[in-house]
Amino acid sequence: MKKQFAVIGLGRFGSSVCKELYHLGHDVLAIDNDEVKLNGVSDYATHHVITNATDESALKSLGIRNFDYVIVAIGDHIQSSILCTMLLKEIGVKKVWVKAQNDYHHKVLEKIGADRIVRPEHDMGIRVAHHLDSERIIDY
Ligand code: ATP
């Protein structure tokens, strides 16, 4: 079933999520405050807008509350990621998934109500270890 996604922050992680969701046939709104980053996904998003995702009125004017999922993929700017996540939950977005940069970031995101927190390198490291472990069992 087609869903409405908004992806905020189009670094390597955010742009990859954005492109894949679009290829899977979903509606995707791509948001970044950097025009160059935004241009990189313009062919892989239903809509794209230059916006500061820490500006509450700007988020509201995008109708962000109506999206099924909002993915916050601002990693390096931890303060912006936290503020943006807090605003999204205050506005009433039901599902907010956020990329965390480190343990401290993860802890704060939990406290302010992020629905799912992902740590791409950390999570993938664990998956790879499990794959390697299952290969060991098969090899045996
Ligand atoms: P990745 O590791 O996924 O490549 P990154 O660490 O290289 O991410 P970040 O610096 O975390 O990239 O930022 C991700 C994106 O978020 C950038 O494209 C940046 O322009 C965007 N961004 C940062 N702050 C804001 C903001 N306040 N509003 C909108 N976009 C923002």
From TrEMBL:
Residues 2-118 form the RCK N-terminal domain. This is TrkA family potassium uptake protein. It comes from Robertmurraya mangrovi.
